[in-house]
Design goal:
The complex is a heterodimer. Chain A has helices at about 5-30, 35-55, 80-90, 95-125, 130-140. Chain A has one domain (about 5-60, about 90-140): Helix Hairpins (Orthogonal Bundle), CATH 1.10.287. Chain A is about 70% helix and about 0% strand. Chain A contains five helices and no strands. The radius of gyration of chain A is 24 Å and the shape is elongated. Chain B is mostly helical. Chain B has a domain at about 20-85. Chain B is about 70% helix and about 5% strand. A two-stranded antiparallel ribbon of chain B has the order 1-2. In chain B, strand 1 and strand 2 form a beta hairpin. In chain B, helix 1 runs antiparallel to helix 2. Chain B is elongated and about 50 Å long. In chain B, about 30% of the residues are buried. Classes of the chains: A mainly alpha, B mainly alpha. Chains A and B meet through helix 1, helix 2, helix 3, helix 4 and helix 5 of A and strand 2, helix 1, helix 2 and helix 3 of B.
């Protein structure tokens, strides 16, 4: 019998993977271009949460701002306090990377939205099946 | 350092994280099956808020500030702008 905590951590990763596969299914199978873009944004969000979850840990605690110090008086933290801090702190590196990923994802989505508007102006629809039909009927556009 | 109470060997943060991730999965499914794109945008906004709350309990409060502004504000405004310029309903087309 596994511990409840182990089962819960397996559940975190499986829920995130199910979300990733569901959003990828939406990107592949939904006919509307805007729906594809929305599902792509959800895919990016789930990937970001997956990265931050890899930095999360068991028995994490909210860290003190200055380990072993108060705001008014300064003293160097001793090794016990540093050990206590390092045993409960989460990994900050994925969090810093995710800030960059959010901004880049925003730029990509704005570009895709502009492309969708141009697609609608050219073909009069956002349905990829209708667009394919129009391309086949009208021949290859120059 | 503050850890909070332990329930069945689990911290409160782990239990809340499971709740928020499940909520995001439900919102993702609702977004996938919705044919009205305005409702789909609203559901994706709820999904972004769920992930922002998951960032809160994962001790990443700096991401929450960026995530609520971008995920709920800019994404929704951008998608609604695209809907005003294009079409609102995702049609079920009979294949010829």
């Amino acid at each position: 019998m596994m511990e409840a905590a182990t089962l819960l951590w397996i559940y975190f990763y499986s829920v995130l993977l199910v979300t990733v596969f569901l959003s990828l299914y939406g990107v592949y199978r939904r006919p509307n271009v805007l729906k594809k873009i929305i599902m792509l944004s959800i895919f990016g969000d789930a990937a970001n949460v997956l990265a931050v979850l890899m930095g999360f840990r068991k028995n994490a605690a909210s860290p003190p701002v200055y380990p072993g110090q108060t705001y008014t008086e300064w003293s160097a933290p001793n090794s016990t306090q540093l050990q206590q801090f390092a045993s409960a702190a989460v990994d900050p590196v994925p969090q810093v990377l995710v800030v960059t990923a959010i901004v880049i994802g925003l730029a990509v989505l704005i570009f895709l939205s502009a492309a969708a508007i141009l697609l609608y102006r050219h073909y009069g629809t956002l349905d990829v099946r209708l667009i394919r039909q129009k391309i086949i009927e009208g021949g290859v556009e120059e | 350092m503050f850890q909070g109470p332990i329930i069945f060997g689990l911290t409160v943060n782990e239990i809340l994280l499971a709740v928020f991730l499940t909520l995001a999965l439900i919102f993702t499914y609702k977004t996938l099956v919705e044919r009205d794109l305005v409702k789909a945008v609203v559901y994706s906004g709820g999904e972004a808020v769920s992930y922002a709350l998951a960032f809160v309990v994962m001790y990443a409060p700096d991401l929450v500030l960026a995530y609520v502004a971008v995920g709920l504000g800019i994404y929704s405004a951008l998608f609604l702008f695209v809907i005003t310029r294009t079409e609102r309903y995702e049609k079920e087309v009979v294949e010829a």
